[in-house]
């Protein structure tokens, strides 16, 4: 009967983790460039595969395209297609789909967190004027003259990407390759790809699973109580 307790505990743990993921996703519904977190079992199910219940608490990232919104800010960039912006914090490199930038000292373009946007061949993107035009392939034109090109990168395998929470990811540089098929749209941002209705459905299913797990543990407790009582009566 110990197996009943293990199944119940596994269901309670998995449902708790999924509720944490759902809460995090809903909290980031309005965060530009945010990519929804999904449970490992959901990721495998989308591939037509089943996983053991004890693995279902692992997380993955849903990189599906979010809706693009017009902002008309010349320093807002949205990616249409595969790829992520590469940004620098000190000597460390990170990746993001969050395309809201601002010009800081030296003409560098930085995220709200102060991370510097990187060019395709390395080095910081530096603008001489806010009137710079960004072509769909990422080429930056100033007074009609190409000055640099925004780099877009994608992982060789999605397993190489580590979510840092919010909109940032880390990955070994060797695991990332430059992509050229995507389109950069100036004056637009990509919205979060979280669907509230879907998250509510996941929340309800997780709650139901937690209730089932709790009932299994209660049933085991009741059976053990009855067994002890019966054994006690028989030994008198």
Structural class: alpha+beta
Low-confidence residue ranges: 53-57
Specify Rg, calculated over alpha carbons: 24 Å
Q: Which bin fits the share of residues in helices?
A: 25-40%
SSE pattern: HEHEEEEEEEEEEEEEEEEEH
- Looking at the structure, what is the overall shape? elongated
Report the β-strand fraction as a percent range: 25-35%
Number of helices: 3
Would you tell me the overall average pLDDT? 88
Question: What characterizes the major β-sheet?
Answer: 7 strands, antiparallel
Q: What's the β-strand tally?
A: 18
Distance between the first and last residues' Cα: 26 Å
Explain the overall architecture.
This protein has helices at residues 2-27, 40-45, 196-234, and strands at 37-39, 59-61, 68-70, 77-80, 84-89, 92-96, 102-103, 109-110, 116-117, 133-134, 139-142, 145-149, 152-155, 162-163, 168-170, 176-178, 183-186, 188-190. A hairpin with a 4-residue loop joins strand 14 (162-163) and strand 15. Strands 5, 6, 9, 13, 14, 15 and 16 form a seven-stranded antiparallel β-sheet that branches. Strands 10-11-12 form a three-stranded antiparallel β-sheet, with no helix packed on it. The protein contains three helices and 18 strands. The protein is of the alpha+beta class.
């Amino acid at each position: 009967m110990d197996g009943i307790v293990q199944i119940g505990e596994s269901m309670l743990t998995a449902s708790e983790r999924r509720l944490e993921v759902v809460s995090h996703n809903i909290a980031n519904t309005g965060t530009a460039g945010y990519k929804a977190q999904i449970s490992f079992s959901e990721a495998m199910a989308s591939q037509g595969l089943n996983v053991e219940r004890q693995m279902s608490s692992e997380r993955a990232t849903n990189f599906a395209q979010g809706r693009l919104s017009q902002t008309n800010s010349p320093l807002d960039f949205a990616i249409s297609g595969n790829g992520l912006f590469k940004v620098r914090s000190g000597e460390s490199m990170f990746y993001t789909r969050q395309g809201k930038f601002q010009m800081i000292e030296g003409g560098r373009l930085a995220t709200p967190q102060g991370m510097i946007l990187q060019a395709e061949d390395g080095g910081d993107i530096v603008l001489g004027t806010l009137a710079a035009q960004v072509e769909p392939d990422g080429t930056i034109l100033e007074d009609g003259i190409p000055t640099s090109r925004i780099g877009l990168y994608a992982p060789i395998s999605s397993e190489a990407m580590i979510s840092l929470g919010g909109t940032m990811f880390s990955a070994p540089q060797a695991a990332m390759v430059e992509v050229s098929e995507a389109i950069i749209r100036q004056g637009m941002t990509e919205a979060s790809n979280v669907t509230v209705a879907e998250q509510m459905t996941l929340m309800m299913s997780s709650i139901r699973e937690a209730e089932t797990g709790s009932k299994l543990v209660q049933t085991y407790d009741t059976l053990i109580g009855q067994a002890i009582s019966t054994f006690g009566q028989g030994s008198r």
